[in-house]
Structure formats: C-alpha cells, structure tokens
C-alpha cells in the first residue's frame, strides 16, 4: 500500500509545521468498565443534578444551535463565591471546548512563527504540540532536585534574557504535582509584561493553589488562568473549560474559536454543575482523605513514590512501567506509565479517587509487583 508520505503520492501539501508534527495520541480506547486511574478524571461521576439537567433538555434544543446566555455569569458567580475577594466579571471569562481547546486558542491567537514558548519539564503533553503547530520554539526547563521543585530562578532569568512570547506553567503540575506560590507567579508576570503568562490550574481545587484570589487583571493584564470542569466536576466527556483574565486578552483568545464550539449538553451540564459546588467540594474532600491514607500506606510499604499537589501521584515500581501497566490492566485497573518523560522515566502516574478505589489499587499493585 502506498504511504501517505510517499513522494509519488499526489496530495495537497499541508503547512510545513503540520507535516513535521505527529498526531496527538493518548490511550483513550477501551477504558469503560475499568477502574480508570490513568487520566486524573473524577472517578465517581458528576453530580446527579447534572444528569437530571441533561435528561431535561427538550428535543427542540438539540435541533437548534446552542445558546450561551447566562453561562459566563454562572462561571463568574461560582468563582466569586469561592474567592475571598469577589471580582471576576463575565467579560473576563472565555469559554472553550475543554481546556485543551483553550490552550490551542492561546497559541493560535498569540504564537507567531519563531516565537518562544517557555515551560517546564516534565509537564502536560499538549503544550508542545500547540507550539509546534504555530512554528514556535519551546524551551522546557526541568523541575529541580529529588522533589521536583519549580525552577523559579531559571525561569526568571530566561524571561529577563530572552524574548518569551508565552510562559506556560501547570500549577499544580501534571505529572509531578509541583506547586508554585501565587506571589512567584505574579513576580514572573511582572518581570516580563510582553509575555503572556498562562497558568493551567486544572488541579488547583485539590490543594487550593490558585493565583486567582491574588491577581488584579488591570494591573497584570498578561496573566491568564485556565480552569476546567473535567476533573473535579466530572464532565470530561462533555468538554468544557474556561480562561479567566483581562477582558482584552480573553477577547483575543476567544476570537480564534468556532462560533458554536461548545454544545448544548456541555452548556446545560456546566450550569447545573456550577450550581452544585457542594458536590465538587465533597468529592475533593474524599480525594484528599484518600491521599492521606495512601501516603501513610506507601511509606509503610516502603514503595518509592512522589505525592504532592493534584489528584495523582507517582510510583517507581521494581518492574518496567509498561509491564506493570499491562499486569494491572488484567486486574481491571488502568494507570499511566511515564516512560520517556524527563526525570520520571521509570515511574507510573496513578490518579487518586476514593479510599476504597485506592485500597483496590494498592492491593492489585502489591500483587503484580510481586508476581
Ligand atoms: C494539566 C492539564 N491541562 C489541561 C488538560 C485538559 O483538560 P480538559 O479536559 O479541560 O480539556 C489536562 C487533562 O488531562 C491536564 O492534565
């Protein structure tokens, strides 16, 4: 069979940047019915209020384009109820088809060919493909020391010495859990006003590591915060995420999305989820209890691990990560090998769910490690 890349095959030529990159791939198939500890999703499902709201969508609303009235107000209201200083206005909120789409939009709207992305390593895997799409170059500064500390000084120096268009910090970082203090983020944003400083706060709810309560977007317009309903609220399959920042920046990032990128199911579910913050808070509390339980067990069993921010942790098994993943899959449990990731190559990443799910995991892990 003729390869798509064969020079004799006559097909329209994509942009050079696209031709040079690989398709984004993640092991997303065949996960239903398993204990899914591989994507840091909510492990018990969304609030019953979300399901009720989706079931109540009239068929007429499915056959027309979605309406978004009230959505940004609901998001701003939810944020203001959680922040100690209420201040976010609907114009400061951009809505996207998941934070993945928000990240894509950030690069599409701000990243010129040849511009620099500054980020950390290892970190979330979608930043670099987005930079590649734009023809940007990436500098990824490694986390430091055995406990993967944020490389503040090196990031600071790079911002001073080199023209950086986008600084992307995942806080807490996926997969190391590294937490960065709000005051450090604000200092970095102030040191380089021409850099768009994007803080991916997908997992902030688990340790409260948000810069949001401390930032005045009029004073620091180059800071943009990303949040999602995927992980805590359990809406990953519906795809809804937000960008919060200065209205001008939010407006530019929103310009590059399609007119109806968020569908009516996501809009309806988001409004219901945002009204039921107690459900999210209870889930987060359960995960934090499970995290505490896990930490004591991992220490007790002397398993090499790293556990910090977020709803996930790293373990260094005695056997190769892929082998452990295959064996755990046979036990009905999915985890993520970190093979090929700088600094954590021989580890696996495991999402934290409820205490009973963590007991199930640990029992299976001990079994497969010793079999
Ligand atoms: C750090 C980080 N950012 C963004 C995303 C994507 O989030 P969403 O489901 O809102 O697209 C993920 C998903 O795993 C993530 O870990």
Describe the structure in your own words.
- The radius of gyration is 21 Å and the shape is globular.
- The chain has 13 helices and 13 strands.
- The chain folds into 2 domains: 9-45 and 278-369, Aspartate Aminotransferase, domain 1; 48-276, Aspartate Aminotransferase, domain 2, CATH 3.40.640.
- β3, α6 and β4 form a beta-alpha-beta unit.
- The N and C termini lie far apart (43 Å).
- It has helices at 16-20, 48-55, 59-63, 71-82, 99-110, 127-134, 152-161, 182-191, 247-255, 264-275, 277-300, 321-330, 355-369, and strands at residues 35-36, 93-96, 116-121, 137-142, 166-170, 196-200, 223-228, 241-245, 305-307, 312-315, 333-334, 336-337, 348-351.
- α5 (99-110) runs parallel beside α6.
- Pyridoxal-5'-phosphate (PLP) binds at residues 39-40, 98-100, 124, 170, 174, 200, 202, 228, 230, 236, 241.
Q: Termini distance?
A: 43 Å
Average pLDDT confidence is 95
| CATH topology category name of the largest domain | Aspartate Aminotransferase, domain 2
Report the C-alpha radius of gyration, rounded: 21 Å
Low-confidence stretches: none
Number of E-type strands? 13
Ions, cofactors and other bound molecules: pyridoxal-5'-phosphate
Output the helix-strand order. Answer: HEHHHEHEHEHEHEEEHHHEEHEEEH
The largest sheet, given as strand count, sense and whether it forms a barrel, is: 7 strands, mixed
Widest sheet: strand ordering: 2-8-7-6-5-3-4
What overall geometry do the principal axes of the alpha carbons give? globular
Percentage of residues assigned to helices: 25-40%
CATH H-level superfamily title of the largest domain: Type I PLP-dependent aspartate aminotransferase-like (Major domain)
Q: Structural class, please?
A: alpha/beta
As an assembly, this protein is single chain
CATH architecture of the largest domain: 3-Layer(aba) Sandwich
Contiguous helical run count? 13
What fraction strand? 5-15%
CATH class call of the largest domain: Alpha Beta
Domains counted in the coordinates: how many? 2
